[in-house]
Specification:
Elements lengths: L3 E8 L18 E10 L4 E3 L5 E2 L6 E6 L5 E6 L4 E6 L4 E7 L5 E6 L5 E6 L4 E6 L9 E6 L8 H11 L27 E3 L7 E3 L24 H6 L10 H6 L13 H11 L18 H12 L16 E3 L2 E2 L13 E2 L2 E2 L25 H4 L17 H13 L6
Antiparallel strand pairs: 1-2, 2-3, 2-4, 5-6, 6-7, 7-8, 9-10, 10-11, 11-12, 13-14, 15-16, 17-18
Helix pairs in contact: 1-4, 5-7
Length: 410
Amino acid sequence: GVLAALPATQANIADGTFRNGKALTFETSVRGMVAFLEAGEGTFAEDFDARRLFDNRGLAAAGVFSSRGDYLFVALRGHRAIERLDVLNASQSGTILNTGYAPDGVALSDDDRFLFVNASLSRLLQVYDVTSFDALPVPIAEVSLVEAEPLDPEILRGKQLFNDSFDPRLARDGYIACAHCHLEGDSDHRVWDFTDRGEGLRRTPPLFGRMDNLPLHWSGNFDEVQDFENDIRGPFGGSGLMATPDFREREDTLGVPKAGQSEELDALAAYVNSLTEHLSSPFRDSAGDLTEAATRGRAVFLSAGCPTCHEGSELTDSGFVSPGVPRLHDVGTLGPGSGSRLGEPLTGLDTPTLHGLWHQASFLHDGSATLEEVIGARNASDTHGNTSTLSETERADLVSYLLSLDGRVD
């Protein structure tokens, strides 16, 4: 029988114009789901036949079973909704809509009468009587969770928008929010096929500490965070945060700026721009300093010419060579799936920062290499730094250094 339920998101990284000719849409990219786990051989194993997908929902964030295990209440974080599943019949049997922002925790009273919902970005604990779903439940009580709001009002509003898929201006049918791939500004560690968008295979990077280095994206196709209005109106299927006439005048992502045209779009940008801190690397010593291997690796990094592009404290030369023309490099990593840039030939890539590499599951713009392969087999011609003649020890030291990079200047 079922031992556990795991709310999550099902990400469609099988489809895409390059991968199989099926372009991703707002309703085929991500979908909220619950996986049901059973006891396997010394571990848990998912019963794939029991997996439950939610239409018009993007990210299932939390769940709680009733005391008898016959119902499962699931919080849909982006859609601001709670779904009650009848576990025995594998069917939906009740819905709560329009909770506070980002419901990401749920609990039931011992008698199963009261459902407690943590609407984290409304800073509220909401209480619902779920004895009956004959009528749409509404909160019977709300408790504030903070005495003083820790975020600037504009940044809080931006974070609410970043996490929301219920607002039709942001997404169609509640599927996609920025946070569904960048939860808390992080990465989903997926490689998406954006060929139909005029791009190609693109690995999701974390957003931490990246907004000071414009342009944005692997191909340098945005020059401000407000350009995500194009994604909101395009792949997300939303109606947009800007007035349509203003958007039409500024649709070119490297043209007239969108900043200042919508308070809420600017708030969204303010939140993203506030993500300035990198996650601390666990590959440093207990004092937070470089290990001996990483210190040797730093010398290898310098001698291999890596700072030619990965320069300065930000470890990137990302920028513009002239207005609207980003600095791009072809370092021999482009392949058949690399696609285009704004629908035009892709001549190179924006230099990503190296801070935070330790937290990433794959490397290069298309996620096609390990870190060892980036400086090894994938760089035999030394177009991506002079690494072909490095010894095994030097390569290992260089990897140690790269894994230690987390925003600190050593």
